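JOB MANIFEST
job_type = single_chain_structure
chain_count = 1
residues = 234
[input]
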Amino acid sequence: MNQIGRPPERKRIPVVLTTAEIQQVLALLPGVEGVLARLLYGTGMRLSEGLSLRVKDVDFDRHVVIVRSGKGDKDRVVMLPRSLAPALREQLASSRALWAADRAAGHSGVFMPHALDAKYPRAGQSWAWHWVFPAPKFSVDPRTGVERRHHLFEERLARQLKQACASAGIAKHVTVHTLLHSFATHLLQAGTDIRTVQELLGHSDVSTTMIYTHVLKVAAGGTASPLDALALGS
């Protein structure tokens, strides 16, 4: 089996929404799903990174978000869109209300990564470590068997996004990851250096980020089709 080797990695052109399509879709996403979708598109965070975001990692003063254990299990810093700040503050207020109710009822704190529960037993009950996007109900943590408040489940945004794209009449195979693809492509379209985009996405190799330049080559209109040179009637 070792002689067979690994199959070659195939590069696929990502599905990207235009800025007009993004605006349509985000306008059709209300509530917490709308805030989460705008955060993912506005920062280039992956769904798992956005859902596992903790209160302590949102810095409104510096307008940054710290992504912990992101792509490649590395930390990185992304921008916090100024236009999103008011809605994100409202989301934090809703999250704090749940946190306060959980503390008053004596429920277990949130899950702590890297076995920090053993080192800091009460940290999971602190506001700083609470989820920015907590689930409305409790669930049993399969890792520990403890019933606690988890963050929102992934399927929630996926369902709402699918419905929004259908309502907007967008005939593309859109997933939550499309928000990240659109973020990167739109930054490059606006003239952002590819190395900067690489750092924002957490890619180890710039060749991974280069896939978005393929989307731009034809879309930019740099190469005209020979059909357009023909004097044919429409």
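[summary]
The chain is about 45% helix and 10% strand.
Residues 19-216 form a domain with the hpI Integrase; Chain A fold (CATH 1.10.443.10).
exit_status = 0
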